[in-house]
Amino acid sequence: MRLTKVLLVLYALDSTGTQAVLTKTGSTCVLTPLSTDNARAARKRDFEAEVTAPRKRIGTTVLQERDLNPEEVWVDDPYSETKKGLWKPGTLGRYPRPEPSPGSSPPFESPLLERRSESRGAVPVILDSEVDNDDLGDFPSVELEIRQTKVLDDTPQLLEAFKQCGKDGIVILSPGNYSIRQVMNTTSLSNCSIEMHSATLVWSVDNISYWRSRCFSVTYAGRCTAWLLGGRDVSLRGFGTTLFDGNGQTWIDLAKGQANLDGRPISLTVWRGTNIFIDGITWRMAQFWHTFVAYSQNVTMTNLDMSTWTNSQYKSVNTDGTNTWNSKDVRIANWTVKCGDDCISVKGNSTNIHVSNVTCYESGAMVVGSIGSNSRQPDYVENVVFENVNLNHSSNAAWIKTYPGTGYVRNITFRNIRFSDVNQPIYVTSCIYSYQNCDSSRIPITNVRWENITGTSRYNVAVGIHCSGGAPCDGFHFENIDIKPKAGGNAKVLCSNIKNQASSGLQCTGPCPGSHPQQLSGNV
Ligand SMILES: *[C@@H]1O[C@H](CO)[C@@H](O)[C@H](O)[C@H]1NC(C)=O
Ligand SMILES: *[C@@H]1O[C@H](CO)[C@@H](O)[C@H](O)[C@H]1NC(C)=O
Ligand SMILES: *[C@@H]1O[C@H](CO)[C@@H](O)[C@H](O)[C@H]1NC(C)=O
Ligand SMILES: *[C@@H]1O[C@H](CO)[C@@H](O)[C@H](O)[C@H]1NC(C)=O
Ligand SMILES: *[C@@H]1O[C@H](CO)[C@@H](O)[C@H](O)[C@H]1NC(C)=O
Ligand SMILES: *[C@@H]1O[C@H](CO)[C@@H](O)[C@H](O)[C@H]1NC(C)=O
Ligand SMILES: *[C@@H]1O[C@H](CO)[C@@H](O)[C@H](O)[C@H]1NC(C)=O
Ligand SMILES: *[C@@H]1O[C@H](CO)[C@@H](O)[C@H](O)[C@H]1NC(C)=O
Ligand SMILES: *[C@@H]1O[C@H](CO)[C@@H](O)[C@H](O)[C@H]1NC(C)=O
Ligand SMILES: *[C@@H]1O[C@H](CO)[C@@H](O)[C@H](O)[C@H]1NC(C)=O
Ligand SMILES: *[C@@H]1O[C@H](CO)[C@@H](O)[C@H](O)[C@H]1NC(C)=O
User: Name one GO cellular component term (predicted).
Assistant: First the structure.
């Protein structure tokens, strides 16, 4: 059988630029950054080694009956207007987001290239013959486009790789630095393996207005993202050697402690994805939430390491590890997260979420919520397991937060959670943040188990639970709860409106008013 090998060199710069070269063989696209002379020299070797290496692939599966309808148009955008009463004015406004147009990234002048173009000297171009000299034989070699540009931006090549190899193909990023200066919409992938080998992707921050205006809406709470990843049967592997650097400090400083700065992008959003596998990626200084899973089914995210922590006077709020929303069958395992907000957060319409072996430093740890912020729209959360979790200096450990809205939370398990110095380990509220109308919430929280929850609380409260008087909690079960104040003594267990409390295994020491806060600032 004669294999037709087509080698494409789509964009090229000289060896001192950062712009990557894209080569394509069959349905495999290989990107090689030209960030060093070595990279250029290694390009051919990488190319050959990587396309021939055996690789594990995820299977292609037929649409299941229980699939969410990934194509369904989302009609109601409940969060787009500033809501009266629940949110502070200005925090949720609609931000104009014109459609992104590929190729219009912010210009970035490289002094080196500037000099070259001034002198009109020829920029050396990587020719296909240099790439794969020996291997080409009599196969046709096609040079599609060679473009010289002053923009040090690897996004066009990356997007081109997804276009060329995103269906029944493989996209390989070879070692080196990639500069990401544009939003990416890669939602129409199918049967695509993305492999990043020792790649460092750096999201630019020298043109904040670009990101704020082009960031893709994710509808939830008016938030948006720098990268939409979706489709069917997609794997994204970083092999523990790949780094996503969001330059988050710039965003943290820009937000000045505000929770929601419009146009501040979520680093990576799994959007309308089915059978998605993400593994072995390290994040440092994400722009906003590290990840978000929305309108997706069967998403596995394993061996991820995230850290976004501020070095300035401003807090790193909303740097959550992940949030799931309108999604089902999500598996999270082997994560290490340090962040200034919730570590793993399960939001409205999440079903069958399994979280295990997660270590969180700081952060809000394992949380269901917030849900129910829109009283016109119900939020449902069910069948969630958080297990084998280690926490250090978090705000809470195993908790549930709802607004006084509608929907339900049921069948939740928090198991084997060990922690030190957590502000208020077990916390449940029906009126998060406002601490008003707590008893009018119509979100029953039922069948929740806390098992083997062990550690030290920062103050003298181990548990604070205020359920809605209008929809009391039921089916609560507590087993092997061992929480001691770090300063010694006995911890208080405050609770209100728990049905069948006597048989729950929890011995309450006093009532918990609706106004009881999520975080304490001292003993109560
Ligand atoms: C920022 O990006 C926008 C949109 O691409 C562009 O119009 C503008 O010129 C850029 N500004 C700078 C300073 O790069
Ligand atoms: C998935 O893509 C690979 C190429 O990466 C191809 O070999 C395989 O046949 C595709 N699977 C299906 C079911 O099309
Ligand atoms: C990638 O960038 C980092 C810092 O930005 C630098 O230290 C490193 O040498 C670069 N790597 C390559 C292969 O150019
Ligand atoms: C992303 O791309 C898909 C198809 O390629 C398109 O249907 C969708 O509208 C795009 N999304 C955004 C937010 O531009
Ligand atoms: C779920 O996705 C994984 C890849 O993470 C895949 O191997 C598996 O077959 C999928 N399960 C179903 C039921 O489609
Ligand atoms: C978690 O990490 C351990 C140790 O590296 C590994 O053996 C295990 O397979 C990982 N689990 C998953 C789900 O990746
Ligand atoms: C848990 O995950 C960490 C990485 O966060 C890994 O080093 C460790 O081996 C995993 N443990 C198990 C039991 O899988
Ligand atoms: C959650 O799902 C319910 C039932 O499908 C739907 O009515 C509601 O709009 C969804 N809520 C959100 C916030 O997506
Ligand atoms: C509760 O959730 C667990 C874990 O997702 C699941 O195995 C179990 O079947 C659920 N129970 C009910 C009654 O739905
Ligand atoms: C918590 O983290 C701090 C700082 O990283 C460290 O000094 C301390 O030993 C950790 N405590 C536990 C119990 O792991
Ligand atoms: C309790 O949880 C810890 C981890 O947090 C685990 O090491 C221990 O084995 C668990 N105990 C039981 C009885 O399951």
Answer: extracellular region
